[in-house]
Amino acid sequence: MGFFCKLFGKCKKEEVKKSGEIKIVSPLDGNVIALKDVPDPTFAQELLGNGVGIEPLKSGVVKSPVDGTIIQLFETKHAFVVETEDGVQVLTHFGLNTVKLKGQGFEIITKEGSKVKAGDPIVKFDYDFLKENADSVITPVVILETEEYKEVKAEEIETAVSGETIIITIVK
């Protein structure tokens, strides 16, 4: 049982297929940074899993990074988890310490339990408000339970287009 599973109790993982690759696309337009460079130890030390950080460039929409089902949409609107058909869970966590804003600066577009495709809109955000009120707008995109996969590789790119640019490849 991994850290995320223990922390949030979302542990109903199904049998994960053992072969193939899964491509994760950027949920935002922005600059891509290594997860170790995210200014938050929970993410930088990969306590929740491996991934990347995205520094958004402007207001817009946070999109689904993968095809799947939204298994968790935080009440504070700042984070969500999408689970693929074969059990890969991807956390998108907008900004750092944005939970303290209690949903201000965010507007939910979809709901928990919805089936989504990579690039589908999930949450609208007000960049200017969040830039002024959050500790950071850097958005970690993390593959949860990474120890279950052969490899979780962050792609070496500098900028990403939401819903299009592949930022992470998972080898199962």
Please give the structural blueprint.
Blueprint: H1 3-8, E1 21-25, E2 30-34, H2 41-44, E3 49-56, E4 60-63, E5 68-73, E6 79-83, E7 89-93, E8 106-108, E9 115-116, E10 121-125, H3 127-133, E11 139-144, E12 151-154, E13 159-160, E14 166-171
Antiparallel strand pairs: 1-14, 2-3, 2-13, 3-11, 4-10, 5-6, 5-9, 6-7, 7-11, 8-10, 12-14
Task: Please explain how this structure is put together.
- With 172 residues, the chain is mainly beta.
- The protein has one domain (21-171): Distorted Sandwich (Glucose Permease (Domain IIA)), CATH 2.70.70.
- Helix content is 10%, strand content 38%.
- It is built from three helices and 14 strands.
- Strands 9-5-6-7-11-3-2-13 form an eight-stranded antiparallel sheet, with no helix packed on it. A three-stranded antiparallel sheet has the order 1-14-12, with no helix packed on it. A three-stranded antiparallel sheet has the order 4-10-8, with no helix packed on it.
- Strand 5 and strand 6 form a beta hairpin.
- The longest helix is centred in the last third of the chain and has 7 residues, at 127-133.
- The protein starts with a helix and ends with a strand.
